[in-house]
């Protein structure tokens, strides 16, 4: 067994109690990388230079983001005893001092406002404090609460609860699980970047691209190992220095009636406009917005991806810039928070997937299923479902796909896609298309 394989097993098999193995297919990729390295040292040396030149900007951007992300999570844990989860349709904002937070859970259709208060404060005064906090948020037109309740007064029928700040092994594990989920998502972005390079650089072979992806994932794994170790150490330190004189008062209320419909209606015109331009169905664009951000234009994931259709500046954003706008650089984050630009970019990326990456798939319904999955995980990972040798070559996979019914394509994707998150994503988007017909 290679050292790379052993490293992978030790790092992630030790965390099976926290989450599923996030890179079950990476072991094979690393083994292939070792073989290719032995077979062609010259190729390896040349390709090292290629990798260095292509990845420096992205890795620098990613490292800076992860450093800021980890510092922010640590500051949250010091106050609250636990991290905030990474999940779609979950929008959380903290005050500058981190003593209050507002969470909009679009999946559960509810809002919670939480405030850290003195442990000795009476229930009556705790209720006054949380109501004052709600009034302050409603007056701040930039707060997520004010935007959600802009046309409705927040209900007085919400539930107020008092809870303790808990440092525990379970919450420490949650902190590590945040890093694992983030690593999973970032690995898929590496796959998407590899697909993009193969599409735009015809001189690059699939073997060379495989080396590029494997090296990047190995670096990501090593970085994650360090972050997991630091997470444990920081959590223990936060627990030892915790302020035991505070507690949490929470106010939970349902979102306004027809909240989803109202949010969705704001972006129908964008979807219809881009549908005509990019020859992608408007219901698909709406279903992806629904699944990616719950129609929150300020959504930001831990990858990070931004806005309504959750665009990553250095993968989908760069693809659209290069192939559609003739600009060979990543997109700016500020632009992705502008709804019209975000929907334009996401729709153009769907067009790239449908009309370029997956164009060899003849059946429209089969191609739709593959496009949905590829939007989340990349066309190469879709190809791996159908290529018995694990190849990321989508044209090779298309020959297999074209021999199958659309239903069988869908079932194979659900069974064999390398990431469970993508399987759930395919189900969600496919089901929601009907809502917007």
Summarize the structure.
This protein is α+β, with helices and mostly antiparallel strands and 437 residues long. The chain is 62% helix and 8% strand. The chain folds into 3 domains: 145 residues, no CATH class; 91 residues, no CATH class; 178 residues, Lysozyme.
What descriptors fit this protein?
3 domains, 437 residues, 62% helix, alpha+beta, 8% strand, globular, 18 helices, five-stranded antiparallel β-sheet, disordered N terminus, 5 strands, Lysozyme
Q: How many domains would you count in the coordinates?
A: 3
Which structural class best describes the helix and strand composition?
alpha+beta
In which range does the helix fraction lie? 55-70%
How many strands, which pairing sense, and closed or not: the largest β-sheet? 5 strands, antiparallel
What is the radius of gyration?
Answer: 23 Å
Apparent shape = globular
Q: How many H/I helices?
A: 18
**Architecture of the largest domain, according to CATH?**
Orthogonal Bundle
Multimer state: single chain
CATH topological fold name of the largest domain: Lysozyme
Q: Hey, roughly how much beta strand do the residues contain? A: 5-15%
Distance between the terminal alpha carbons, to the nearest Å? 52 Å
CATH class of the largest domain: Mainly Alpha
Structure commentary:
The chain is an alpha+beta fold and 437 residues long. It folds into three domains: 3-76 and 170-240, no CATH class; 90-167 and 242-254, no CATH class; 259-436, Lysozyme (Orthogonal Bundle), CATH 1.10.530. The chain is 62% helix and 8% strand. The protein contains 18 helices and five strands. It has helices spanning 3-13, 26-39, 41-80, 123-139, 144-148, 169-200, 206-240, 259-265, 268-278, 282-293, 316-323, 333-336, 339-357, 364-377, 379-386, 394-401, 406-416, 420-433, and strands spanning 90-94, 100-105, 110-118, 159-164, 246-254. A five-stranded antiparallel β-sheet has the order 1-2-3-5-4, with helices on one face. A hairpin with a 5-residue loop joins strand 1 (90-94) and strand 2 (100-105). The chain is globular and about 70 Å long. The N and C termini lie far apart (52 Å). Mean pLDDT is 86; it is low at 1-26 and 36-41.
């Amino acid at each position: 067994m290679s050292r790379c394989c052993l490293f992978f097993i030790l790092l992630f098999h030790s965390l099976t109690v926290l989450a599923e193995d996030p890179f079950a297919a990476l072991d094979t990729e690393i083994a292939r990388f070792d073989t290719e390295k032995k077979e062609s040292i010259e190729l390896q040396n040349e390709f090292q230079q290629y990798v260095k030149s292509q990845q420096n900007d992205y890795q620098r951007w990613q490292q800076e983001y992860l450093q800021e992300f980890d510092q922010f999570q640590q500051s949250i844990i010091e106050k609250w005893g636990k991290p905030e989860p990474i999940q779609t349709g979950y929008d959380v904002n903290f005050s500058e001092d981190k003593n209050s937070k507002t969470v909009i859970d679009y999946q559960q259709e509810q809002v919670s406002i939480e405030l850290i208060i003195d442990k000795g404060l009476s229930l009556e005064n705790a209720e006054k404090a949380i109501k004052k906090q709600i009034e302050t948020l409603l007056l701040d037109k930039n707060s997520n609460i004010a935007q959600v309740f802009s046309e409705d007064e927040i209900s007085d029928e919400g539930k107020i609860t008092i809870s303790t700040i808990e440092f525990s092994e379970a919450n420490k594990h949650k902190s590590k699980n945040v890093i694992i989920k983030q690593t999973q998502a970032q690995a898929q972005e590496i796959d998407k970047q590899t697909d993009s390079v193969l599409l735009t650089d015809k001189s690059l072979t699939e073997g060379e691209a495989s080396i590029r992806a494997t090296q990047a994932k190995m670096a990501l794994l090593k970085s994650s190992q360090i972050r997991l170790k630091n997470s444990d150490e920081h959590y223990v330190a936060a627990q030892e220095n915790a302020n035991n004189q505070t507690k949490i008062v929470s106010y939970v209320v349902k979102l306004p009636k027809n909240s989803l419909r109202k949010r969705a209606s704001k972006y129908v015109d964008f979807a219809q406009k881009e549908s005509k331009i990019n020859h992608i169905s408007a219901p698909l664009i709406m279903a992806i917005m629904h699944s990616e951000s719950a129609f929150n234009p300020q959504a930001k994931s831990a990858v990070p991806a931004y806005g309504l259709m959750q665009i990553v500046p250095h993968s989908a954003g760069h693809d659209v810039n290069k192939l559609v706008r003739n600009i060979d650089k990543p997109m700016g984050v500020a632009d992705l928070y502008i709804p019209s630009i975000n929907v334009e970019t996401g729709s153009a990326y769907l067009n790239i997937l449908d009309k370029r990456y997956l164009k060899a798939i003849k059946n429209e319904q089969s191609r739709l299923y593959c496009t949905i999955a590829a939007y989340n995980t990349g066309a190469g990972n879709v190809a791996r479902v159908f290529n018995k040798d694990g190849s990321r070559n989508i044209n090779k996979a298309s020959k297999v796909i074209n021999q199958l019914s659309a239903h069988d394509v869908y079932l194979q994707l659900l069974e064999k896609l390398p990431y469970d998150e993508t399987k759930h994503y395919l189900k969600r988007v496919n089901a929601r298309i009907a809502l917007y017909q």
